[in-house]
Amino acid sequence: MFALHNVLFKSMSNSKFTRKSALFRKCLNSFRLIYLVSAVVFSAAMLTGCADKQQDDRISDTRLLLDTYCTIVIHGDVSSELLDEAFALCAELEALFSITIEGSDVWRINHAEGEPAKVDSRTRDVIKAGLEFGELSDGMFDITIGRLTRLWDFGRHRQGDGSSGPTSEDSRTVPLSSDIEDAKNAGNIKDLLISEETVWVREPDGGGDTAWIDLGAIAKGYIADEIAAFLVESGVTGALIDLGGDVVTVGNRPDGSPWRIALRKPFGSTDEWIGIVDASDFAVVSSGTYERSFEKDGVFYHHILDPFTGMPAETDIVSATVIAESAVIGEGLSTIAVLAGSERASEYFEQVSGFICAVLVLDDGEILVIGDMRMLTIGDMG
Amino acid sequence: MKSNKFWIIVLGIIVTISAVVAVLFWQVQASYANIYKDGELFRPPVNLLAVTEPYSVMIYDGFSSGSDGLSSQSGADGLNVIEIEYGRVRMSESNCPLGICLHRGWVSGGIMPVVCLPNRVVVTFDGVSDDNRIDAVVG
What we know:
The complex is a heterodimer. By secondary structure, chain A is an alpha+beta fold.
């Protein structure tokens, strides 16, 4: 750009006209000065404009937590310590809610042998939220199916690369139906008592094993919401928290446009989407039958268990994505949708005020959209 | 003099009207088409630049079913069929009495929406967002 201008000036200075009078030259000089200054200012503005767009003024990090990849993006004038603190909060909450980490609140509740266990107030919050979704869904959403989830143990078969699709390892075994029956008939939500400081799983009246709590269907959402709240309290105006597919957004992207979240095509490759959500200040959460799943003897088994059968839920929904005001609502409702099927799902959605929109992918490939779909674009194939 | 002034005013009005019409019907290629029924967005905005296979959306008695496999529900009756192709849409069928919406033909953008007033179906257009990066993936 500059080179071109110099050539222009050179040819003008050398022309006969510029030599004709000193006055003219003076005029030309001042004109040249003004031109140069404005050119420099203009170019500087252009360059900084471009730089803004490319650097974007954001910091982010991805770490392996919660048995998945967690990414936090923050923009604005913040230090990287804030990122560390956010991930530390994530790890702290995981250490409370995990069913497998020894000494976690959930682990202590499950191993209290019929006695009340003293727990963190946040653990009680998650359990209470879980009970609300249980009530909403007529018991389909059940946080007391810990014995069933441990029996099936889908967590072991999470694929590390994040791509979807069932694993087909020969080592996979379907639990014995007698074991499923025992786990299913263990204690249930009725045996769960919450007081000011304790959570108590009593021994069931009719005998059998005491229930185990599993917050896996809701904990990630709660943690994502907590991290978002923490960042907002720290003065952050724009952030995206992605806990392995549970996404919460704070504000907008640095350029003022909403965060763009792609909805992956079920059983598709990693860059095939069915649509895009333009998100600002809300959560996008998916539950899919393809996530933690395996195939054995031609039968497909996935991780969303129906507490009434003890088996993977069999409905017409392959994946449910819920856009909601919080990730807890998103997780609760997307799981309930897969358990309930497309016909009943919307009646549950309607009962929750923080629900915004749902995208249900059905087993025949049809896509059903329910609710306020303004921020949704369908048809953006990677 | 008086007749000169008159003609200048007439010319001015003509120029103004043509300018307004030009602005209204000027079709800058839009990237999104929004289909409204009874004032409410009826299905997610359609990314016109991502349409690979042409398809149609039928809106009948407040229920829409698209040949792309997407269906949704809302409002009152009336029958409309909207065809969607790469970069453009048109109202191809309507049971409204005058069929004004059908005469618009293919529309690829601009600030003038495709309107079927009797059936309260409106298609508006949105521009392109300059940053199309994906920030996260769910599902």
